[in-house]
Write a structure and sequence with these properties.
Structural class: mainly beta
Radius of gyration: 22 Å
Largest sheet: 5 strands, antiparallel
Strand content: over 45%
Number of domains: 2
Length: 485
Amino acid sequence: MKNSLTLLTFFICLIFAGTAYSQWQPDVRITNNTSSSYTTAHNNAWCVASSGSNVHLLWSDLRHGNYEIYYRQSTNGGVNWQPERRFTNNSGNSSDPSVSASGSSVHVVWFDNHQGNPEIYYRRSTNGGADWAAEIRLSNNMDNSYDPSVFSTGSLVHVVWMDQRDGNNEVYYIRSTNGGANWGSETRLTNDPTLSLEPSVSAAGNDVHISWCDGRSGYGHEIYYKRSTNGGASFGADTRLTNDPGITGNASISVSGVNVNLVWYDKRDGNNEIYYKRSQNGGTNWGPDVRLTNNSADSWCPSISASSSLLHVVWYDYRDGTNPEIYYKRSTNGGTSWETDVRLTNNISISNLATVSTSGTSVHVVWTEQRDGNPEIYYKRNPNGNFVGIENISSEIPNGFSLEQNYPNPFNPATNINFSIPKSGHVKLVVYDMMGKIAAELVNGNYSAGTYKVDFDASQLSTGTYFYKITAGEFSSVKKMTLVK
């Protein structure tokens, strides 16, 4: 009887997981004007970020005759969107925004030429996007600074970009140690006579990981990598991650704990394909290249988001004809294996430049779309595609409902939460910050009687005290946990 119950529970979980994976909701048109609107032109950065139920989206918009940055926010996980807000207002071009969210803090960088040549600018919100501080100029030189990427963990904010002040493109870095209030000095990270392009940054605690494309190898760009283990105070040596005769580009990096995940496009197969590579020990060692796409058409500009053992990748490719479409792929075991490609768009116009973000159980994808005659911004979500790692550790029917204290506690950045339910039903497990705002939704679905373990990765949250609450039928319970980074 016990084995029969275990098998039944296993198959129910399989059915639920398959259903959740397919729950991509309809496209949502974010912009609506007769001019051109674009997401970030290079997928070294993300123009969408999410934290708890807050989703933040930025893009470049030409409606005023020059490019300006616009912003929209959802406070209920992408179900509804607030009216758009103009984020920049000057006579120059403002382009390629990158955004990162950590709790109620939101950080945005972009490049802007309103003071002569393109420079990197920054703005922040400390109340979840409701209000924004004045812009801060981060780079300051007589040459061009392009393609910024930002990532934040707690009070640490990291920004990288491509800079031409040295006669050729080099990668530069700057950080704030107090949530963007003040900034340190610019640091040159690369030093070679060829092009260093499209840097991407991600971090977990004090470990900062940066990837970029570099022409120093002589026969086409290769992917290089650099890391800091002290919050960006200093960086180790460059590490060459690819070695093939094809051109590589648009590297996107995302970190979850000690797992570092990297995607890029690669022409070693005759046409551009999407490749993946990972480190399971914080960037010390790297596994082999893994080819994620396999078709006769070109695949471009991947973007990756990592959440515990769940990895989400989006890109665009031409396999369906003359116009590109957005595709998505997921791994549920940290990159060991990958599920089949999912086509997210289906129309006769160009769909490209997609970026992806995750929070709670939701996956958020944003891209540029021309189905309306001019480029517009579109959004799509899967509310259950980022199901948190949950394991049925016992199918024995417990005596009653319970919610256990998380372990370890305090934690950084991952912890486990166990709960028990004596009968089948709907279970919701939510993490709240001290202000009562949702920081993460860990469980929201139907489960059979048993005891479950939930893996919670809080890499995107700030240091502090949080509360987690379970609701199952008429039962509810709240406990406190502490995140220390």
